[in-house]
Recover the amino acids of this structure.
């Protein structure tokens, strides 16, 4: 029990640190087993989701059981070389991700409306 307290050290973590990591620049052919091998070295993993469709290939979400394990993984795996690609490991931030998806939706809706009503970008200027 004492080792757990020492390991965590009662350190205060920055607010952006959480258990969910967003990983970019993954090789497209990486398997979940390889992901567990790489990220499992830093602690117990609850879930890994690898992007499979055209827009999400090369990305993944890794969810750790413990926030301190997630911090260790970010500290050690950012810039880690996997199949000649350097990983980008970030803390997942819901607000930033949802804004990005909202922007895509708005752009798609605008394109559909432009097509529906026959308006081009030149007409808007």
């Amino acid at each position: 029990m004492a080792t757990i307290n020492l390991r965590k050290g009662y350190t205060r973590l920055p607010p952006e640190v959480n258990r969910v990591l967003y990983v970019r620049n993954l090789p497209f052919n990486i398997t979940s087993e390889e992901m567990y091998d790489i990220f499992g070295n830093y602690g117990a993993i609850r879930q890994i989701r690898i992007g499979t469709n055209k827009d999400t290939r090369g990305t993944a979400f890794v969810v750790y059981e413990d926030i301190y394990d997630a911090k260790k993984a970010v500290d050690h795996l950012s810039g880690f070389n996997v199949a000649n690609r350097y990983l980008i490991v970030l803390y997942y931030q819901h607000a930033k991700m949802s804004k990005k998806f909202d922007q895509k939706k708005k752009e798609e809706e605008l394109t559909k409306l432009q097509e529906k009503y026959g308006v081009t970008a030149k007409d808007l200027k």
